[in-house]
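Table S2 (continued). Query chain:
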Amino acid sequence: MTTTDPTQPVPEPMHRLYFEEPGPPRPAELPGGGPAWLVSRYDDVRRVLSDPRFGRAQLYAPGAPALSGVPDLVNDPDLMFNQDGPDHLRLRRTLRRAFTPRAVARWRPWIAAIVEELLDRLETRQQPADVVAEFTLPLPVAVISRLMGLDGSAWDRMRHWSEHAFSDGTHEGEQVASALEEFSAFGADLLTERRRTPGEDLISSLVAAADEEGGVPEAQLVSLVCGLVVGGHDSTMTMLGNALLYLLGERRESWPRLGADEEAAGRLVDRLVHLVPLGDDRGSTRHAAEDVEVGGVTIPAGAIVLADCGMANRDPEIFPPATLHDLFAPLEAPTLSFGAGPHYCLGAWLARTELQLALHRLAARFPDLRLAAPMDTVAWRSGTTSRSPQRLGVRW
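Corresponding output:
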């Protein structure tokens, strides 16, 4: 696993990242230096993410500037997130019933059982124990593995693939390409196996739905499987680690209520997802197919647009500063952390359920849980577009 470079300044915890005041759309730069437009107010960001004239597919058209210096899964043109219009809808329909609130509600009992099993194991560990190794990582890995019918033998490889699939550009290009090639072969083999011997798992359902839908290219199905494998655990692991650092390090007064009230835990999860980003790069990129007026400003055809969800989630016109950091206050409007419009995150309800159960039961079982070392000594998992504690020692 990539570690934080000791010669570099210690990164700020994710909940302390600075956000500028949102304002009208304005010219900006891409990370590589190319021109872009920054959109940052809540209504404007929601408009960009929902308007079909702002798409993803053209970002990968021949001759388009590269969005990353090394290959990665996020910028794979075959990924569902990078499809628009009918191609996107066809892929999305293959998963239309898999992640609904009703489906996730059926999974809730066995997710809760996994949480309790991990807490039982944590209770036997010598203190200080690493809550990342014992809880925040194995929980989402176990959940997505059960959904997809994967056994424990794939878990180490899943973390390896995640680190390269979501590389922030610090890995060698050949190293990333080799990992993604191996990962794609794994996804293709899974599809072949489930076609031959279908089961009750998510991949078998995906295969059946794709066959029923018709016309779904195999490369897109492979990318979809790979995206589910790594996306299904990496973001929840990241959010859990960052949430615990924030709660135990700076908001310890919320811990008793979190453990006593499961409904309040759900509101806290919504607020944390809203406030704490998964990574330092907050922009969601789109391509303008034509001139479009957004927030009183005309964004020209062909422009690349950075929709900054982090700034939008702090728009004082929508989220009053007086309640912004009230962890148990209901959100005044839907968070943009899961996106909006046709590319809204399919796994949002599953992630929310895992986070609610995990934090509520952890606080209930370990009411005296506390950090074993100061926050500024935390080593950060780096090298990927998401960032969270690599290790988090706790006592109880």
